[in-house]
Amino acid sequence: MSITLTETAANRVKTFLENRGKGIGLRLGVKTSGCSGLAYVLEFVDVLNEDDLVFEQQGVKVIIDQKSLVYLNGIELDYVKEGLNEGFKYNNPNVKESCGCGESFHV
């Protein structure tokens, strides 16, 4: 089981957590949504749940629930700036197809 954060993503998460003033890490998960079936969920974590798995990358804790791990195993989370847009980018080897708008995916 592996989850990878690029250096850029790790630095961005650290900055977000510092500005927020609390939190133990970043939750990465999936939810049912969109036309392709699944969408990514990112949120800050203040308290761990019983079924959470914790991966530490470059000083950042990435928390994933066991149900989401099957869809996220091997993912690389990056933070990119493209023109005026910036945000997290998911490089997920499990994705078979994604919708045209990029909001959802299917494995």
From TrEMBL:
Name of one Pfam family that matches? Fe-S_biosyn
**InterPro entries from the entry?**
ATAP (IPR016092), ATAP_core_dom (IPR000361), Fe-S_cluster_asmbl/transfer (IPR050322), FeS_cluster_insertion_CS (IPR017870), HesB-like_dom_sf (IPR035903), IscA_proteobact (IPR011302)
| UniProt keyword list | Iron, Metal-binding
As cofactor, the record names: Fe cation
Q: For the Core domain, which residue ranges apply? A: 1-103
* The family this protein is said to belong to: Belongs to the HesB/IscA family.
Q: Cross-referenced NCBIfam families, in alphabetical order?
A: iron-sulfur cluster assembly accessory protein (TIGR00049), IscA (TIGR02011), PRK09502.1 (NF007049)
This protein is called Iron-binding protein IscA
